[in-house]
Amino acid sequence: MMPDPDRAVAVAMELRWSDQDALGHVNNARIITLMEEARIRWMRGGESNKRFGFGTVVASLQVDYLRPLHYGPDFLIRLGTVRIGTKSFTVRLVGMQHGVKVFDGTTVMVPLAEDGVSSRALDQDERSWLEDSVVSAKA
């Protein structure tokens, strides 16, 4: 499984005026919410799928804020898989505005079992789908 930066999915995001903080930058907590929204859109894929039927939970989240993100129409998040384990996987999310990285983060996700509480192993369909979106981890 070779990382391929071209496998990253680009999700266009809309910013709201209220996303800004007192300095005129998008608030750091709002960036976490935008990451969540992009990840959910990517995982659902706009298609009828059976992946993660009982949901997933965030086990870990890490973000490096590289530059201020400003209110405006030109903003997207590029994302893909950087690690696939037995009972978890890691998604890398890179925020881009005007062609420049504004943040770079990872989220470790754990699929839930039927009880909605316990973790479970990734099934083969989920694993194959994740393998199709492997991208490079941070250098």
From TrEMBL:
Pfam families the record matches: 4HBT_2 (PF13279)
InterPro entries per the UniProt record, alphabetical: 4-hydroxybenzoyl-CoA_TE (IPR050563), HotDog_dom_sf (IPR029069)
Top-rank lineage group of the source organism: Bacteria
Recorded GO MF terms: fatty acyl-CoA hydrolase activity
Protein name (Swiss-Prot/TrEMBL): Thioesterase superfamily protein
